[in-house]
Design brief:
Oligomer: single chain
Number of helices: 9
Radius of gyration: 19 Å
Bound molecules: ligand MTE
CATH class: Alpha Beta
Largest sheet: 8 strands, mixed
Distance between the termini: 17 Å
Strand content: 15-25%
């Protein structure tokens, strides 16, 4: 993975969502008045079109939310990792409009008594959608605070009657090179489709959610539409996007970054300031949007969620199981 290739703009240039949207409608109005298509230069026009029709979601608040101030909508939706659409941080916002997210189902199978297809419409309408404001820590040593809209993964899996002997959940992203240009790029650094996995207790932990939105609206494509995983105490790459399959297994499933670089990325990938990445320190992080002169912040064990999750790893050597 690349790091620090895209410097953060100074805080004077960081915009709240309201300002961002107002500025957009202003630019759109100006463009309309002059007969031009609205295409402000700071973001791809396709991402704007997609955001304009974003569906609002009805959410409830959650006691799991951090009180830290969320990053702006602009930060969250224009600084992304989604290698199916390119390896640069702005590539997903510029390119992910090619992805069709309806119809969409997730195959739920493997060691369950009640396998089936989970339709995204059901996920959006039959479950309680919670706003969960979580810290998000990328393995590249930057972080954000993101107001997700999600459903505990445990609530979803319960519907499929998981067998007692199931030990892991294996997740898979859509494989559709015609809509995901990175999947046919010869420079691609990852094997496709993107895959991830969680141990059963991690999957069933109340902090683990399937996210279907952010900032109270359906997920923009670049953030993993229509449904992605969010596991806040692990490095961001565990949070697999645009999921089409969840399979309950007995054996530890393969994970994309571990396949790409086994020496650098393990299965567990818990945020751990005492275990450095072989090529850089994990002791501190740069908060996106804080400005280039802002002090780096100390990275917390399990990304600050130690009280809730440390017990899952009791007795494990977290240097070995990194
Ligand atoms: N999921 C898929 N399918 N493809 C990806 O390239 N990147 C991962 C993760 N999930 C990735 C993915 C990485 S490296 C990170 S840091 C997070 O998504 C980024 O999520 P965000 O762009 O919403 O911040």
């Amino acid at each position: 993975m690349t790091s620090y290739r895209y410097p953060t703009p100074p805080s004077s240039q960081i915009t709240s969502k309201e300002d961002f949207l107002n500025r957009r409608s202003f630019v759109a109005g100006m463009a309309g008045a002059s007969g031009l298509a609205a295409a402000p230069s700071f973001i791809g026009s396709s991402a704007i079109a997609q955001e304009r029709k974003a569906q609002k979601l009805k959410t409830t608040s959650s006691s799991f939310s951090t009180v830290e101030k969320p990053n702006s909508y602009e930060d969250v939706t224009t600084y992304n990792n989604f290698y199916e659409f390119g390896t640069g941080k702005s590539d997903p916002a510029e390119n992910a409009h090619t992805l069709t997210t309806r119809p969409w189902t997730i195959d739920v199978g493997g060691m369950v008594n009640n396998p089936g297809k989970l339709d995204i419409e059901k996920l959006l309408t039959k479950f309680t959608l919670e706003e969960r404001i979580y810290r998000f820590r990328c393995v590249e040593a930057w972080s954000m605070v993101i107001p997700w809209v999600g459903i505990p993964l445990a609530d979803v899996l319960k519907q499929y009657d998981v067998q007692g002997s199931a030990k892991y959940v294996a997740f898979e992203t859509l494989l559709r090179p015609e809509e995901m240009p990175g999947q046919s790029s010869t420079f691609s650094s990852l094997p496709w489709p993107y895959v991830e996995g969680l141990r059963m207790d991690e999957a069933m932990h109340p902090l683990t959610i399937l996210a279907v939105g952010l900032y109270g609206e359906v997920l923009p494509n670049q953030n993993g539409a229509p449904v992605r995983l969010v596991v806040p105490w692990k490095y961001g790459f565990k949070s697999i996007k645009s999921i089409v399959s969840m399979k309950l297994t007995e054996d530890e499933p393969p994970t994309s970054w571990n396949k790409a670089g086994p020496r650098e990325y393990g299965f567990y990938s818990n945020v751990n300031p005492t275990v450095n990445h072989p090529r850089w320190s994990q002791a501190t992080e740069r908060r996106i949007g804080a400005g280039i002169f802002a002090k780096r912040i100390e990275t917390l064990m399990f990304n600050g969620y130690a009280d809730q999750v440390a017990s899952l790893y009791e007795g494990m050597d977290l240097r070995k199981f990194y």
